[in-house]
Amino acid sequence: MYCVDLDATAADSFQVSQERIHKLISVIARFLKAVDLDAWLGEPENDFDRIYGMARGRFALDHNEPVRPERLALLGGVSPSRMRAMISGDTVNLKRDDNKMIPITGALNWLEGRETFVPRSGGIKPSADQIDDEQPTAPGLLPV
Question: Which residue intervals make up region (Disordered) (predicted)?
Answer without folding.
Answer: 121-144
